[in-house]
Amino acid sequence: MADQPGAAVMEAGALEFRGAEVDLVDERRESRETVGTPFIDDPRMSCRDVNVYYSDNHAIKNVSLDIGREQVLAMIGPSGCGKSTFLRALNRMNDTIDGCRMTGEIKLDGNDIYAKDMDVVPLRALVGMVFQKPNPFPKSIFDNIAYGVRIHGLAESKSEIEGIVEHSLKRAGLWEEVNDRLHQPGTGLSGGQQQRLCIARTIAVSPEVILMDEPCSALDPIATARVEDLINELGQDYTIAIVTHSMQQAARVSQRTAYFHLGDLLEVGPTDQIFTNPIHPLTEDYITGRFG
Amino acid sequence: MAASEKSTIERVRATLARRNRAERRFKNFGRAAVLVGLVFLVLMFVNIILTGYSAFWQTFVKLPVHFDAQVIDPGGAGDPETLGSADYGALVKTSVRSLFPEVSGRRHRRDLGQLVSRGTVFQLRRMVLEDPSLVGSRAEVWVPADDDYDMLHKGNVDRTLPEADRRLSDRQIGWFDRLADDGRVESRFSATFFTAGDSREPELAGIRGAAMGSFFTLAVTLLLSFPLGVATSVYLEEFAPRNRVTALIEVNINNLAAVPSIVFGLLGLAVFINLFGLPRSAPLVGGLVLTLMTLPTIIIAGRAALKSVPPSIREAALGVGASKLQMIVHHVLPLAMPGMLTGTIIGMARALGETAPLLMIGMVAFVVDVPQSVTDAATALPVQIFLWLDSPERAFVERASAAIMVLLAFLVAMNALAIVLRRRFERRW
Ligand SMILES: Nc1ncnc2c1ncn2[C@@H]1O[C@H](COP(=O)(O)OP(=O)(O)OP(=O)(O)O)[C@@H](O)[C@H]1O
Ligand SMILES: [Mg+2]
Q1: CA–CA min distance B234, chain A (Å)
Q2: Rounded distance from Cα A60 to ligand 1 centre (Å)
Q3: B109-126: per-residue pLDDT in tens?
Q4: Distance between alpha carbon A66 and the CA centroid of its chain, in Å?
Q5: Is there a single domain that holds both residue B364 and residue B306?
Q6: Cβ-based neighbours of B271, under 8 Å, separated by 6 or more
Q7: Burial state string for B140-151 with b = 16 or more CB within 10 A and e = fewer than 16
């Protein structure tokens, strides 16, 4: 928090030549209110006044945001601004971190997911997640994908499981590369292959909401295109929230974009409008490459 | 400013020789340390095997035995009870005397009777009971020599010592030499050491009683301490809230691991024997006491193993909707198992070599019968070694060395098992 005024002063100095405009811009630049359209009708998930703390570190500050049905929401922002933290709050993965506290309200289809009687097991089956770092199980490729299917009892027979495994691998664009070594260790794959394995693992249990934390950061352009196709395809039926550092990717896959800045949600809006005509000066700085 | 003219690569080169030298030095230190360790290990093995291997051999004497019907079965009824209660000692005495008819005088005759093992009496009795038709016949029977003659034959007695410093007199040595010259002495492989329990007579004493005692004790220890230790470490590491109570428990577990083992024996005496009324000297109680002693080791190793499982694996499991228990059983435990097994083996190896806690619960005792269950009176291998080394007979020393060999074999077997198990779990993909 201490560095914010400092940063603002520096920015203000750079903008001084604009003369009379400066005061106005300065004021808007200082503002940490969310601008744009954070709320929509009939949202799949709705977050209100969400705060997340890691012990004393206030990582997410008063974020209110709706995530629409059958839509892809992109979250962008400089490194360390809390995108992963917010994403992990959406399926309560932060519960597993010692010292991580959360206040506010997050609803899925109108049900408070932080309610006392909420069971995290069905929640996480419903709200799947692809992590920032690929984390395959130290098991075979097949078992990596079959695991979720088995524990939730989603398949009646072995052949059904095999069908799901194949289908998931195909959608994640990995089938061609691994179909002849399904029973070899998943940890023996390359980094990008591991990430696609994790995507396949997540979609194998057919979650209705999918949270993706920089799923393409370790992928080459071809695999990235494959995953983006998958996101576009899934976005027809499912709710997707994706964190990305690539503006182009956000533009290609998402309908709405949210810009996070040092724990604050500064701006939410339709993707094309955010990239062509941002409201908040800091959003503009970020997408034009002046920040982060 | 000569320094600034040097390029990076030149500076690196300048330090390179020093760094390489340091590395070589370290490697050589390591090799030397390993070598010293190996030398001592080999010395220990050679020493133990050299003193102990002869315990598997026993000197036998061929006796001309007359199964005198007058002595065994004067009535001629032939019923097992009469046959069993006959005075076989007299048969042995007669037969030894028949080899040395010239010996007279009570004292010398008594010495003569002690030429062969006291077990001979039971051997003859067994022969007659198995085959009553022997009664009345004559036969040449190989019987174990007494331990002092056994030692003499194995060359463990210094004949040049003054007579007073030896356990055998010149006359006794003379008898034995005459037997040997007559071809009546032979050294044979003897399984007695592996099949018999303890005995006052070294030539009749075996390791089986102590080995079974150790086996039962360790079985109880393993069956209790492994599941308990794993469950405790999983609960403390994964489920227990982090608060003062669990912090206190953690400190106390660490303390328990450092408590001298004899204290656990005192606890076992007070709780298991005096309070619960469990039998004294029983492997069951020994196992319980050693469980108390081993548990902290297993718990500490188990927690360290659980801590070392990467958090990303946990997140992956929870992320697809596994419950906490599923996450632990399917993913965390398999990865933590090698570490847990290592801790268990270290604990069990320590338990195997422990004598002090057994002292308090009466497992340091002279037990002749081989225990058949966890409630029979028993000793353990290290106790047996201690008891034998404490005996005055020279023959017990070789038995003790042989017992150490058995103890080491136990250890090697346990470690081998641990390595096999660890290999299975360590297929880390
Ligand atoms: N497990 C944790 N414990 C403590 N602090 C954390 C933890 N994870 C994140 N933080 C802190 O929370 C803030 C937000 O982190 P977060 O990982 O959400 O950033 P991010 O926007 O995802 O960044 P990136 O784009 O680099 O992934 C950072 O200041 C970080 O130091
Ligand atoms: Mg992140």
Answers
A1: 16
A2: 10
A3: 888 888 888 888 888 888
A4: 13
A5: yes
A6: none
A7: ebebbbbbbbbb
Closest residue to atom 26 of ligand 1, CA basis: A79
pLDDT for residue A291: 59
Residue among A50, A84, A86, A286 to mutate when testing ligand 1 (max atoms within 8 A of CB): A84
Q: Which of A120, A138, A205 sits opposite B429 (nearest CB)?
A: A138
Q: What is the pLDDT of residue A21?
A: 58
How many angstroms is it from A94 CA to the middle of ligand 2? 13
pTM score: 0.82
Residues A191-237 pLDDT 10s: 889 999 999 999 999 999 999 999 998 888 988 988 898 899 889 98
Residues B175 and B239 in one domain: no
Pick the last residue of a domain from B133, B160, B188. B188
Q: Does residue B397 sit within a domain?
A: yes
Domain co-membership, B95 together with B180: yes
- Ligand 1 pocket, residue A261 CB under 6 Å: no
Mark whether B177 and B290 lie in a shared domain. no
In chain A, whose CA is at the least distance from the CA of B331?
A: A137
Give the ipTM. 0.85
Q: What is the mean pLDDT of residues A255-275?
A: 94
How high is the mean pLDDT of chain A? 88
Would you give the end-to-end CA distance of chain B in angstroms? 55
- Least CB–CB distance from A152: residue in B321, B330, B428: B321
A260 forms beta bridges with A265
Least confident of A22-26, B78-82, B383-387, B404-408: A22-26
User: In this complex, which of B312, B316, B321 lies closest to A125 when CB atoms are compared?
Assistant: B321
Ligand lying closest to the C-alpha of residue A246: 1
How many CB atoms are located within 10 Å of the residue A30 CB? 13
Q: Which ligand is nearest to the CA of A89?
A: 1
As a whole number of Å, the CA-based R_g of chain B is 31
Chain B neighbors of A125, CB-CB under 8 A: 320-321
State the CATH number of the domain containing residue B353. Answer: 1.10.3720.10
The neighbouring-strand residues paired with A103 are A51
DSSP string, A231-289: HHHHTTTSEEEEE-S-HHHHHHH-SEEEEEETTEEEEEEEHHHHHHS-SSHHHHHHHTT
Q: Cα–Cα distance between B57 and B202 in angstroms, integer? A: 12
- For residue B324, what is the nearest residue in chain A, using CA coordinates? A121
Take residue B276 and report the two structure tokens written for it.
């619960």
- A:B CB pairs within 8 Å: 71
Q: Which amino acid is present at A206?
A: S
pLDDT tens readout for residues A73-118: 999 999 999 999 999 999 999 988 888 999 999 999 999 999 998 8
Contacts of A98 in chain B (CB under 8 A): 242
Sort residue B277 into left (φ over 0), alpha (ψ -120 to 50) or beta: left
Total domains present in chain B: 2
**Looking at domain A68-98+110-287, which CATH architecture does it have?**
3-Layer(aba) Sandwich (3.40)
Rounded Cα distance, A72 and B258, in Å = 58
With 50 as the cut, is the pLDDT of residue A292 above it?
no
